[in-house]
Prior knowledge:
mainly beta; 9-stranded mixed beta sheet
Amino acid sequence: xxxxxxxxxxxxxxxxxxxxxxxxxxxxxxxxxxxxxxxxxxxxxxxxxxxxxxxxxxxxxxxxxxxxxxxxxxxxxxxxxxxxxxxxxxxxxxxxxxxxxxxxxxxxxxxxxxxxxxxxxxxxxxxxxxxxxxxxxxxxxxxxxxxxxxxxxxxxxxxxxxxxxxxxxxxxxxxxxxxxxxxxxxxxxxxxxxxxxxxxxxxxxxxxxxxxxxxxxxxxxxxxxxxxxxxxxxxxxxxxxxxxxxxxxxxxxxxxxxxxxxxxxxxxxxxxxxxxxxxxxxxxxxxxxxxxxxxxxxxxxxxxxxxxxxxxxxxxxxxxxxxxxxxxxxxxxxxxxxxxxxxxxxxxxxxxxxxxxxxxxxxxxxxxxxxxxxxxxxxxxxxxxxxxxxxxxxxxxxxxxxxxxxxxxxxxxxxxxxxxxxxxxxxxxxxxxxxxxxxxxxxxxxxxxxxxxxxxxxxxxxxxxxxxxxxxxxxxxxxxxxxxxxxxxxxxxxxxxxxxxxxxxxxxxxxxxxxxxxxxxxxxxxxxxxxxxxxxxxxxxxxxxxxxxxxxxxxxxxxxxxxxxxxxxxxxxxxxxxxxxxxxxxxxxxxxxxxxxxxxxxxxxxxxxxxxxxxxxxxxxxxxxxxxxxxxxxxxxxxxxxxxxxxxxxxxxxxxxxxxxxxxxxxxxxxxxxxxxxxxxxxxxxxxxxxxxxxxxxxxxxxxxxxxxxxxxxxxxxxxxxxxxxxxxxxxxxxxxxxxxxxxxxxxxxxxxxxxxxxxxxxxxxxxxxxxxxxxxxxxxxxxxxxxxxxxxxxxxxxxxxxxx
Length: 805
């Protein structure tokens, strides 16, 4: 009888959790002051959402009574209001670090997740931390959380003697919903008690299922509201002062406008006129010894915000837009290059994106870059000549993405680059699918891509992949395959390194869904990957790796991994020549990762690694260490040091062509070398309040490759000593970047930014191993470039302006 009673309780509990909770909201006509007090009488008459359930770590556990959480929702003709009362039996222990926008820091957090179409596809998430900071993002199951999306809304958090309170006003202009008279929205609430690392939601999120956005509750009661005119203007003005030892100090004044317009209840137009990206984060450049270009993160807000549609098929690498010129200048006899631009100016850009209530997502992105010249000077006559290194160019992306059954989609994607004149164009088309079973237990995903290059080259190629996986439960697995032909090339607007291969891969994993005696979370995963040269069938890559990641009961993160290449492989990319390969030896390596609890004032990350190759004296080892200290809720500093050494590394350095009638070099030169890398990074912030923050970001990097002896690549892929090579092909790259900034959000959506930046760097064939001297050379005035800038951006909402007049 006792067991039967227990079974019934568990069954009723499961049924209760699996059902969607419903909350009834209420229309108001009186004004609510967003001050975190909830003292307006109308709040007391609103229905209450309570009975929160733990999401992590003990999935399904109810929130304790001394942490009880009660949420109320009201609405008027312009906005929805959220009032959250969160009890805490020890309010003094509520963590409340002050941070920048979209950074939670070490703080308790409250959030609301809203889906105006209630279709389980996309949540608009709004967070407030206990230090009164804001964060917001768009979330989909496919792409996760996108914090580059920003909305303008009001909130206030207040610590009380019983816990803390959050009051929020989210205007309809920050949301998406249909024009129907009676609204039904998807809704969920979130609370994190940071000192315990406990996360709760109002509607239960079952971690066994492979979905998050489809496990929301329901908000009812909103009637007779209309989607507002979503027209936002963001004019800006910036002033820059530039100085270095090579030119006279000069100032530049810039101005421009960003525009957002809601075409209808689903689609939004984003446009930038006369863009200014001068205050974006610097790139972390490295010494790149490999055959492929370094890939950089996109830091420009226009190209990072709301790009979930444009990421379909992984065809868009937006750094191509306004990136390096596609053509290299050619100096004639008696000429020298006096101006060779490193980037191309963006004239303007716009994007249209959104999704209908029937699940059809449409995305259009278009950008135009200007005609760019390199300049040459004749040494004898002093005449100046210009050569086009990038013509006027148009970049275009079209995405049609049809979602169905709330958890699956099929998309059509086309990217196109059209360059003026006889320069190369590019066009890529793809069909992309992501199919999930009704219960989100299995997934079938893949794509088929076709590329075509026009004018400069006549190339046609395909790339396709297919993978199947189980996405729920403790044990999960996946298998897949892909193929890329020799002529596939999406590099005009995308980025792709390897071609002419096919591959097979698989993975399996085990995770705990609830805490054990020693761990809050535990995940073990094994991956296998094999890549074959398409025409010869030779194994290009063969790898097995095993990883364990865990979170202890004291919220320290521990990880360990092993990586094995058990078979010799044939690398067709490192020789930099068609149809040649170098044989890579077998390898075994491993790493350990330790990250202590960031809740503590002092914490650190430590990550050592080691690998040994089946080749005399060849190995690699390194470590990174990252201590961090939070002095108080306003001031914190993070430091990171990285060291990595490769002994007897083998890599390409040169090609020799003795036969002038042949396009293929006769001799390919490799080097037996030691490669050593050091980097130091320091970041920190001092927050006056949640609207004003001072930030520092410093990075020093030095990496060098010292060649011990030259090797020639034989036709069978082996390397042999090559005594006749005497050129100095050592490499030493060093760089310094420093950003000191101040940010003030002086009004909703409006910001003043002050930035001082200095940087230096260089490449040398002669290696100076005196570390201190290298640093000194980077920081002297002859090497440094200085930039000081002030930027003011002001947010204008058409609805507010209209109401005032």
